[in-house]
Amino acid sequence: MSGGQGTVAAATFVWLGMVLAISFLEAPLKFRAPGVDLRLGLGIGRIVFRALNLVELVLAVLIAGALALGDTADGLLPAACVPIGVLIAQLLLVRPALTKRSNRVLAGEDAGGSRVHLVYVAAEVVKVVALVVLGVAALRG
Questions:
Q1: Both ends of the chain: CA-CA distance in Å?
Q2: Which of 33, 61, 67, 70 has its Cβ near the most Cβ atoms within 10 Å?
Q3: Where are the alpha helices (DSSP H) in the chain?
């Protein structure tokens, strides 16, 4: 395994672990904690997901840089495009809609159910699968 592929593998599995821990563990569990209502949970979630997305961007840039500069297997570039593309779509399309909704809820309005939230969760599932594929491909070289 080349240094570039090692970097891709390491960054990919760190990214995967963070998404699994935050999106699929922390996010739903915080609403089960005593005293955490929807407004408080949304406020916490906004801070946590802003931090997660920043780290995801750093890891995506690290992966892209390793692929651009390193000696890596040919199939890694297309595999890397999927999770990076999903992240970009989430940041540019889905997160703004979620922020608009959470602003209404935090202002005391009843925003009702959120289909956009389901789109975000579906994108997270796609991203997780894509990160597993990318990580395994990087390890196999």
A1: 6
A2: 67
A3: 3-21, 27-30, 38-69, 76-89, 95-106, 115-140
This model's pTM is above 0.90 = yes
CA 115 to chain centre: 18
The answer for residues whose C-beta is within 8 angstroms of residue 121's C-beta and 6 or more apart is 23
Q: Determine whether 134 is exposed, middle or buried from the number of CB atoms within 10 Å of its CB (0-12, 13-18, 19+).
A: buried
Tokens of 10: 């390491």
* CB distance 135 to 12 below 8 Å: yes
Domain ranges of the chain: 3-140
Please report, in tens digits, the pLDDT of each residue of the chain (141 residues total). 678 899 999 999 999 999 999 999 999 899 899 999 888 898 899 999 999 999 999 999 999 999 999 777 778 999 999 999 999 999 999 999 999 888 888 888 876 777 898 999 999 999 999 999 999 999 997
List of residues 6+ apart from 42 with CB closer than 8 A: 102, 105, 106
